[in-house]
Amino acid sequence: MQLAMIGLGRMGGNMTERLMRGGHTVVAYDRDPATVQKYQQMGATAAADLAQVVGKLQTPRIIWIMVPAGKPVDDTIDALRPQLSPGDILIDGGNSMYKDSRARAERLAAEKINFIDAGTSGGVWGLENGYCLMVGGDTQAVKHCEPIFLTLAPKDGYLHVGPPGAGHYVKMVHNGIEYGLLQAYAEGYEVLAASKKYPDLDLRAIAELWQHGSVVRSWLNELAVAAFARDPRLEKLTGYVADSGEGRWTVAEAIEEDVPAPVITLSLIMRLRSRQPDTFSGKVIAALRNEFGGHAVKGQ
Fold it and tell me: CB-based contacts of 270: which residues, under 8 Å, 6+ apart?
């Protein structure tokens, strides 16, 4: 099939390459001309701007958007809309808020333009291993794009989960679960690393051990093996942990639906804590413990 890919970053670029390997024709656009040229040399059709993206596609056009969530998605859609025709299909494969995706689908439906939200998981490994795709949208539009999804996904790695917004809703919860899993691994390995009873524990060897028959074996733990192999005590890293929004949205959705989600909530809070080398609240607690109990405090 023919489609366009807007945004050729770590995900969009690899997806473009995987699609071309699968026999699809891709019109490639990125704000960085050098990046566009890279994929043109691989066989993509280069577009210098969004007008060229639309102009180089046959109708009904399929345009996959891989730009950061929020305003960049809206700006891209607004720039494309005047040039699109009824029956064209826009796919947002980024980590957009599902409520935004529903609203975008409603606005575009008024112009008979289809909107599909494709929650995409797989990271930088997706090029070789495939991407898990959680797809929301009109059944007919999704069916039309299915050859694309089947190429990007590994076997059984694509599912049409519901109407517009459902794909990003499922991906949001997926990422909330990821927060909790990452936090559990992080805490466990920190206990091992901090042990004074057994100070010489080999974290890489233990992580590798757990990949064989253990109930905590997983792809995330496999990645821990690789990380510890490169840096046994992660001394080259700082503990700053960013978040792209999905954890916050999952916690907010849990509250909205009256669902207790303590693990995901606390894992989000720990990400916020990671950005503070020292906290005023910690100082207050230390000061109060010193005041009421004479507990020792540490100075700067």
Answer: 183, 241
Task: Write the pLDDT tens digit of every residue in 283-298.
Answer: 888 888 898 888 888 8
Q: Do the Cβ atoms of 174 and 119 come closer than 8 Å?
A: yes
pTM: 0.93
> Whose CA is closest to 134, among 180, 108, 101?
101
CB 128 within 8 A of CB 155: no
Cis peptide before 60 (omega within 30 of 0): yes
Annotation says 71 is catalytic = no
Q: State how far the Cα of 172 lies from the Cα of 151, in Å rounded to an integer.
A: 23
Catalytic residue selected from 178, 208, 222, 253: 178
State CA 46 to chain mean position distance.
Answer: 26
- Each residue of 16-71: pLDDT tens digit? 999 999 999 999 999 999 999 999 999 999 999 999 999 999 999 999 999 999 99
- Contact residues for 111 (Cβ-Cβ < 8 A; gap 6+): 81, 84, 86
Q: How far is CA 271 from CA 39, 48, 56, 146, 276, in A?
A: 35, 39, 43, 36, 10
Q: Is 112 a catalytic residue?
A: no
Provide the edge-to-edge strand list for the sheet that holds 2-6: 45-46, 25-29, 2-6, 62-65, 89-92, 114-121, 132-136, 158-162
Alpha helices per DSSP H over 211-279: 219-230, 246-256, 262-273
For 31, phi and psi rounded to 5 degrees?
A: -65, -20
**Set 17, 38, 171, 246: catalytic member:** 171
Calpha distance 279→285 (Å, rounded): 10
CA distance 63 to 92: 9
